């Protein structure tokens, strides 16, 4: 129950709603992506991870609507359509250390 409350709070900060396109940078085991799709009705989601184990786990369990990529956000190509929400939770390895937020302009 606490985990679901945490996911709901994070998604509310990102203002995720039905029909949104969402991205989770440093998606871990895919919990936030699944929450956005299953509970909030997001139209699509993309997960980015640097972990081989997490990539394999999500890829084996995910539906076709959840593309997960084994790459850094910095290597993700600029999408043709912007995401409605870009979320990131405790992804120390995936974010830059200089404190800037360059992904805002890109996505």
Summarize the SSE layout with pairings.
Elements: H1 2-13, E1 21-25, H2 31-38, E2 44-49, H3 52-61, E3 68-70, E4 85-87, H4 103-106
Parallel strand pairs: 1-2, 1-4, 2-3
Helix pairs in contact: 1-2
Short description:
32% of the residues lie in helices and 16% in strands. The chain is built from 4 helices and 4 strands; from the N terminus they run αβαβαββα. It is globular and about 30 Å long.
Task: Describe the model.
The chain is of the alpha/beta class and 107 residues long. It contains four helices and four strands. The protein has helices spanning 2-13, 31-38, 52-61, 103-106; strands at residues 21-25, 44-49, 68-70, 85-87. Strands 3-2-1-4 form a four-stranded parallel sheet, with helices on one face. Helix 1 packs across helix 2 (31-38). The longest helix is centred in the first third of the chain and has 12 residues, at 2-13. The N and C termini lie far apart (32 Å). The relative contact order is 0.23.
The shape, in one word, is globular
Arrangement of strands in the largest sheet: 3-2-1-4
The description of the largest β-sheet is:
4 strands, parallel
Decide which structural class fits the backbone. Answer: alpha/beta
Question: Overall mean pLDDT score?
Answer: 84
Order of helices and strands: HEHEHEEH
Helix proportion of residues, in percent? 25-40%
Alpha-carbon distance between the two ends: 32 Å
Q: Report the C-alpha radius of gyration, rounded.
A: 13 Å
Instruction: Name the beta content range.
Output: 15-25%
Number of helices: 4
Low-confidence stretches: none
| Tally of DSSP β-strands | 4
């Amino acid at each position: 129950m606490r985990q679901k409350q945490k996911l709901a709070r994070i998604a509310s900060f990102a203002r995720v709603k039905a029909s949104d396109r969402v991205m989770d940078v440093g998606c871990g085991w895919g919990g936030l992506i699944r929450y956005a799709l299953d509970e909030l009705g997001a139209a699509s989601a993309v997960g980015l991870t640097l972990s081989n184990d997490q990539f394999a786990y999500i890829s084996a369990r995910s539906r076709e609507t959840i593309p997960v990529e084994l790459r850094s956000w910095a290597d993700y190509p600029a999408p043709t359509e912007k995401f409605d929400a870009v979320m990131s939770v405790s992804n120390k390895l995936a974010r830059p250390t200089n404190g800037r937020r360059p992904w805002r302009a890109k996505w």
